[in-house]
């Protein structure tokens, strides 16, 4: 018998108390079940039980990536900053990047991702169309200086990712590579016991025009997705479309009234202005002043809606979008921050969300300190030439595909796939000689999975008030043997024989040989969540029966020693 597979010889430091620092169920249970321990904020040690789960997840990922044609390699964590300047991303990631200076004064980046490194490798070794398509992947530790690490390994500073990169000669090839990775991701999450929803997503600092996130609905999720249960439409809030409603349901009755300036001393927010003037937020307009690639732009949004900066950025086709500073706001509006409005703006482009179409007699800022306008009206008091969907979808909106109701749900992002296109190959001159003898940039795709997050999310979605309920494929062990009074000779002999038989059959078995009460053993068994446990006691042995308990359902089966192996193997292959 492998001595390490005895609980007394293994290292499983379970805890009765709930850790005070843990917010999410997965964080609490990973600590209590002895899977992880915190070293510093956003940095965790994987203990032996947690490492076994981690390795099983990695095995699933490798199996599916290899099936999809991926070739595994392993790239350095420490990257020269020059590569990041070459791609133009050094400023984009800002304070999230962790850097240091080596003894020679060179700036080194601890890699949060590896687009630059893999592009550098490919441009030096892939120079002909005959070498493509090719997809590389790795499983490696990444680093990001999160402002607020939370939820244990779900959002940490040091985390494990599987990242893959495809290289094709043309866009048609990229479409095929993207589809292969998309299908591989569906298989990975399904095998890991997760119901992942693929959603349309924003590419962010990664770049590219098309991307999908794989999300798992969970109350602990920091992301939000819009989901239609009727037609299956799903998208992250960053890109979820809003169907334009013809005519405004908020249109005020009666004719346009004369615009009037009113005093609103010290009142700047929509809520406070609405309370002071006794006006609902949906009858107000927010005027937001941004700089898009250093050029000012005014964005008009209905008062009860939130601006969607991803949509605004895409509409403006800009690389960098920021809220304007006090100086720019003063120059454009003539007034201070908090009182901006669309009337009388100078030297700026104005774009408006479709939500304000049809509105009449609404409230806006007056571009003067402590002043607002009431009874403002489109065309008469100001003009808008550019209209677009620029706001964040809400559960009051309809599905953009089938016009039924939409649901906004919290979710955890498990993976993200991107059609990068030429973003990196053009910037870093990754080129090849095509069939026609001409030099062309390679067409790239990028595909990432949060390995740690698979573990945490599996726990978030598979637990009860007693502990973890592991999906079988990623459970640290498949079967737990619980002998009642292991010191008794007949119990010990029967337990050891069962262990040997199951071990030879290829079953992952852990033997709880501790000198503890049955109650403690049963509680720990439910806490660590091994899918099946076999209770071996003197009374059952005398009857010739053993109990097999299924952790997920609580169902108990009886089996003789002769039947046991067959029944366990049957349960493991269901």
Write structural notes for this entry.
With 574 residues, the protein is of the alpha+beta class. The chain folds into three domains: 50-75 and 114-240 and 408-459, BirA Bifunctional Protein, domain 2 (2-Layer Sandwich); 260-388, YbaK protein; 477-572, Anticodon-binding domain (Rossmann fold, 3-Layer(aba) Sandwich). Helices cover 27% and strands 28% of the residues. It is built from 15 helices and 31 strands. The strands form eight sheets. Strands 3, 7, 8, 9, 10, 11, 12, 21 and 24 form a nine-stranded mixed sheet that branches. α1 (25-32) crosses α11, α2 (48-67) runs antiparallel to α6 and α2 (48-67) packs across α11. The longest helix has 21 residues, at 171-191. The radius of gyration is 29 Å and the shape is globular. The two termini are 27 Å apart. The relative contact order is 0.14. The model is unreliable at 246-252 (pLDDT under 50).
- Total strands: the figure is 31
CATH class of the largest domain, please? Answer: Alpha Beta
Average pLDDT value?
Answer: 91
**Total domains, how many?**
3
SS field, number of helical segments: 15
CATH topology of the largest domain: BirA Bifunctional Protein, domain 2
Under the CATH scheme, the architecture of the largest domain is 2-Layer Sandwich
**How many strands, which pairing sense, and closed or not: the largest β-sheet?**
9 strands, mixed
Proportion in β-strands: 25-35%
**Quaternary arrangement of the chains shown?**
single chain
Q: Report the C-alpha radius of gyration, rounded.
A: 29 Å
In helices, the fraction of residues equals: 25-40%
CATH level-four homologous superfamily name of the largest domain? Bira Bifunctional Protein, Domain 2
How far is the N terminus from the C terminus? Answer: 27 Å
Overall spatial form: globular
| Uncertain segments | 246-252
């Amino acid at each position: 018998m492998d001595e390490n597979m005895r609980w007394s010889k293994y290292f499983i430091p379970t805890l009765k108390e709930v850790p005070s620092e843990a917010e999410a169920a997965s964080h609490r249970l990973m600590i209590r079940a002895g899977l992880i321990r915190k070293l510093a904020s956003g940095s965790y040690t994987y203990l032996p039980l947690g490492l076994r789960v981690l390795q099983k997840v990695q095995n699933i990922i490798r199996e599916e990536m290899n099936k999809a044609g991926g070739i595994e390699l392993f790239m350095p964590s420490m990257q020269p900053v020059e590569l990041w300047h070459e791609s133009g991303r050094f400023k984009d990631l800002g304070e999230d990047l962790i850097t240091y200076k080596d003894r020679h004064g060179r700036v080194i980046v601890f890699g949060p991702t590896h687009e630059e490194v893999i592009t550098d490798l490919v441009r030096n070794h892939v120079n002909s169309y005959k070498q493509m398509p090719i997809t590389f992947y790795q499983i490696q530790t990444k680093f990001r200086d999160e402002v607020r690490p939370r939820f244990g390994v779900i959002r940490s500073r040091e985390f494990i990712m599987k990242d893959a990169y495809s290289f094709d000669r043309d866009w048609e090839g990229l479409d095929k590579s993207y589809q292969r990775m998309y299908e591989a991701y569906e298989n990975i999450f399904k095998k890991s016991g997760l119901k992942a929803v693929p959603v349309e997503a924003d590419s962010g600092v990664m770049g590219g025009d098309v991307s999908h996130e794989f999300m798992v609905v969970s109350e602990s999720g920091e992301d939000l997705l819009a989901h239609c249960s009727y037609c299956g439409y799903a998208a992250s809030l960053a890109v979820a479309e809003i169907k334009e409603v013809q005519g405004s349901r908020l249109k005020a009755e009666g004719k346009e009234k004369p615009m009037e300036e009113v005093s609103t001393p010290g009142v700047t927010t929509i809520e406070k202005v609405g309370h002071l003037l006794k006006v609902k937020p949906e009858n107000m307009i927010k005027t937001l002043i941004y700089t898009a690639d250093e050029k000012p732009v005014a964005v008009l949004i209905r008062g009860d809606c939130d601006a969607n900066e991803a949509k605004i950025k895409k509409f403006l086709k800009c690389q960098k979008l920021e809220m304007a500073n006090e100086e720019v706001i003063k120059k454009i509006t003539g007034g201070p921050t908090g009182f901006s409005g669309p009337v009388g703006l100078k030297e700026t482009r104005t774009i408006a969300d479709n939500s304000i179409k049809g509105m009449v007699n609404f409230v806006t800022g007056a571009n003067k300190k402590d002043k607002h306008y009431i009874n403002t009206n489109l065309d008469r008091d100001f003009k808008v030439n550019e209209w677009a969907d620029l706001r964040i979808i809400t559960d009051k909106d309809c599905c953009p595909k089938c016009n039924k109701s939409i649901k906004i749900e919290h979710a955890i992002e498990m993976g993200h796939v991107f059609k990068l296109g030429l973003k990196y190959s053009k910037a870093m001159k990754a080129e090849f000689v095509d069939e026609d003898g001409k030099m062309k940039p390679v067409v790239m795709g990028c595909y990432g999975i949060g390995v740690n997050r698979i573990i945490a999310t599996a726990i978030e979605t598979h637990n009860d008030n007693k502990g973890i309920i592991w999906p079988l494929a990623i459970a640290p062990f498949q079967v737990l043997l619980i002998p009642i009074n292991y010191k008794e000779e007949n119990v010990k002999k029967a337990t050891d024989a069962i262990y040997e038989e199951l071990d030879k059959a290829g079953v992952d078995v852990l033997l709880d040989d501790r000198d503890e009460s049955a109650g403690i053993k049963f509680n720990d068994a439910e806490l660590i969540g091994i899918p099946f446990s076999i209770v071996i006691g003197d009374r059952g042995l005398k009857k010739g029966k053993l109990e097999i308990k299924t952790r997920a359902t609580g169902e108990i089966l009886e089996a003789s020693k002769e039947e046991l192996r067959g029944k366990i193997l049957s349960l493991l292959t269901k």
